[in-house]
Write a structure and sequence with these properties.
3-stranded mixed sheet, globular, alpha/beta, binds beta-D-fucopyranose, 452 residues
């Protein structure tokens, strides 16, 4: 079976399932779309550096140009306005505004975000910012070993406070980190992401420093802004491959490292005991008072959801049955898990209001006669929105949804080969073409708006 074997959901009925003030948006990140990698005083990031190492990126591409959003942002904002969106989630590139990650600020870098915010607000779009979507200033990696060092924590808090001081009154929300699990695990344990290290001990130490930097940044920003503050976590719920006790244990342990390793310190002030015990000698160095500094009151929780994972007794990943098929990333499509997981979070953690800060699919899209007929994406989107509505009926307090992504863009170590956008990008001309899914989303939002 594939996504196309399921009947499309009627957009009018679906729209009626969401409260009138529910917000619709799209998400992007700086490194994936901006380009202008070495312009206007921007410093190098660890991704600028990583892309230049042979063998790191599947299509050997760089982010020097990406979608050229830095120059084309007026066109991109106009596209969003035409889709009828309420809000836009983007990230600040730290090395664009502070090239070395400490010391001097780069005024032309701040001026870019100033123009972007003006453009968004003039188009009636609420800006939701993320401070760290993986593009650490390369200089911090060279001087300190990046997030391995506790010395990066106060520098991140300084950067957060500066962005909040300058832009807080124009931002609808600020998230400290995007997906710290990815920064720590893919960057320092599996080596797929920058800076490409392979050590579990390093990864867990990095995760702790990310958590600490989150708590410190929240406190630093509270002092200078009234805007809503939070964090964005990626959750890939873990399931046992077979209903045996051994498989269940493996899935529970993965849940400890993917979900609870971040949720527990942030909302309960403690790391999960089972995962910590399993870490053994790889457990991070934690100083007295750290957990209290991490556990700060938040105004929102951002959840990114794409798929689930299945584990066998030895903790190995097993391919799921794919009842609704798989995306072009090979990720199993499981909207029912999305609903179930949101309800779990609501029951177990009683979190602040949640936003779905990312959800979407990569698809092998093609332009056919000036159109992109991406029926799979429409099916994915509508199935996940239906699951979201179900979760909300069952008690999950979710206030908005951001599709990942506005544009096809640089998908990290996959390069430009994986297309997640509602809008197709021709990388030879940088021309934007809204896909059928963009039209579907626009019509769906219009149906919802008609009920407001
Ligand atoms: C998430 C990232 C985002 C994008 C999507 C597909 O993990 O936050 O940048 O790459 O996956």
């Amino acid at each position: 079976m594939t996504l196309l074997d399921f009947d499309p959901i009627d957009p009018a009925a679906l729209a009626a399932a969401f409260p009138p003030d529910f917000l619709w948006g799209v998400a992007t990140s700086a490194a994936q779309i901006e380009g202008a990698a070495f312009e206007a005083g921007k410093g190098a990031s660890i991704w600028d550096h990583f892309c230049r190492q042979p063998g790191r990126i599947n299509d050997a591409s760089t982010i020097d140009v990406a979608c050229d959003h830095d120059h084309r942002y007026p066109e991109d904002v106009a596209l969003m306005r035409r889709l009828g969106l309420d809000c836009y989630r983007f990230s600040f590139a730290w090395p664009r505004v502070q090239p070395l990650g400490q010391g001097a600020w780069n005024e032309p870098g701040f001026a870019f975000y100033d123009r972007l915010l003006d453009e968004l607000l003039a188009a009636g779009l609420q800006p939701h910012a993320t401070l760290y979507h993986w593009d650490l200033p390369q200089a911090l990696d060279e001087q300190f070993g990046g997030w391995l060092s506790r010395d990066v924590v106060p520098r991140f808090a300084d950067y957060a406070a500066e962005v909040a001081r300058r832009f807080g009154d124009r931002l609808a929300s600020v998230a400290t980190h995007n997906e710290p699990w990815c920064t720590a695990t893919l960057g320092y344990e599996t080596g797929q992401f920058a800076p490409g290290h392979k050590s579990r001990a390093e990864s867990l130490q990095v995760a702790h420093h990310l958590m600490l930097s989150h708590g410190e940044a929240i406190q630093a920003m509270r002092a200078v802004t009234q805007t809503r503050l939070g964090i964005v976590l990626n959750h890939t719920p873990a399931f046992p491959a077979t209903p045996t006790e051994a498989d269940r244990r493996a899935a529970r342990l993965d849940d400890g490292f993917n979900v609870r390793w971040y949720m527990d310190p942030i909302f309960r002030g403690a790391y999960p005991a089972d995962a910590l015990a399993h870490a053994g000698a790889d457990a991070p160095r934690i100083e007295a008072g750290d957990l209290a500094r991490i556990c700060q009151p938040l105004d929102f929780l951002g959840i990114n959801f794409y798929t689930r994972s299945l584990f066998d007794a030895d903790g190995r990943l097993v391919k799921g049955p794919g009842r609704r098929g798989f995306t072009d990333m090979g990720w199993e499509v499981v909207p029912e898990v999305f609903a179930q997981h949101l309800v779990r979070l609501a029951r177990e953690y009683n979190p602040p209001p949640m936003f779905i800060t990312e959800n979407g699919m990569a698809n092998a899209d093609r332009v056919v006669d000036g159109r992109v007929p991406d029926r799979e994406r429409i099916a994915y989107l509508s199935a996940h929105l239906q699951a979201l509505a179900t979760a909300m009926q069952l008690g999950a307090d979710v206030r908005g949804y951001f599709y990942w992504s506005l544009l096809d863009n640089f998908e990290w170590n996959s390069g430009y080969d994986k297309r997640f956008g509602l809008v197709h990008v021709d990388y030879a001309t940088l021309e934007r073409l809204p896909k059928d899914s963009a039209h579907w989303y626009r019509d769906f939002i219009a149906q919802h708006r008609a009920r407001r």
